[in-house]
Amino acid sequence: MTVAAMRHDFEIQPLTPRLGAEVTGVDLAQPLDDQAFALIRDAFDRRLVLVFRDQHLPEPAHIAFSRRFGALEVHVLNQYLDTRFPELYVISNVGPDGKPRGVHPDRGTMVWHTDLSFTRVPSYATILYGVEIATTGGDTMFADMLSAYEALPEATKTEIAGLRAVHDLDVSRRKAGDDPLTADQRAKAPPVDHPVVRLHGPSGRRGLYLGSHASHIEGWPQDKGEALIRQLVAHATEKRFVYRHRWRHGDLVMWDNRATLHRATDYDTGNDRRIVRRTVVTGEVPVPG
User: Fold this and answer.
1) Other C-beta atoms within 10 Å of 59: how many?
2) What does the DSSP 8-state code read for residue 186?
3) Per residue in 15-56, pLDDT tens?
4) What CA dihedral angle connects 11, 138, 282 and 55, to 10 degrees?
């Protein structure tokens, strides 16, 4: 699919039949005119994941491009924030001596999740830039939650209609083996509930809205709710719904948190330096689907 954007010298090509597209011929360090930005935003709302290769993106340009999509979040996990640019969340395994530390900086990124689902107004988009890339591993996998919902048996759709899941950052970090929240972080990120099936506004399609931050189903016994969440996430992350992104230096990847799950794969944290930084664009309260 070549979008009628050649006047801007860029093209948008699908990465899989339903999920993801690569945008070529655009320099995100330069301001985009309104028409070019509208084409990119339209592709994003349809394809849910966009990949931009060979970018050279200083921090202010990363922030400026992200703000075209909306207001930016300052994450509650302040230990990951860039002290110069608090809108930037940096995940790095590099120690003060410049060497790999041998431990993963955020193990919660390696389980399927959607960013900021633990907030009352969760995120619209995450925009991630590869500053330094591992030689092997450190990929990012994306799952299409709209197509996954549509492929469910009708009986399952009926069973989950109207259900709400409780999302809790402290629970998900403990399960992943990360440091628990501080008292101040916990106060700023209390558990919240969201519909298990939410409406994706741009497309009008329904999609699952779950992931590792979802701790249980509201009003259900804990074990029964956990089992349902595992079942639905396992279904949604089947290979037929997934795009796997293998990073190259200078990649910028953005994804729609309203309609996708994502997870990182492991890499050699003792020998490879890996530094990525992201912005998160504020979304809206999920509308039940």
Assistant:
1) 17
2) H
3) 999 999 999 999 999 999 999 999 999 999 999 999 999 999
4) -40
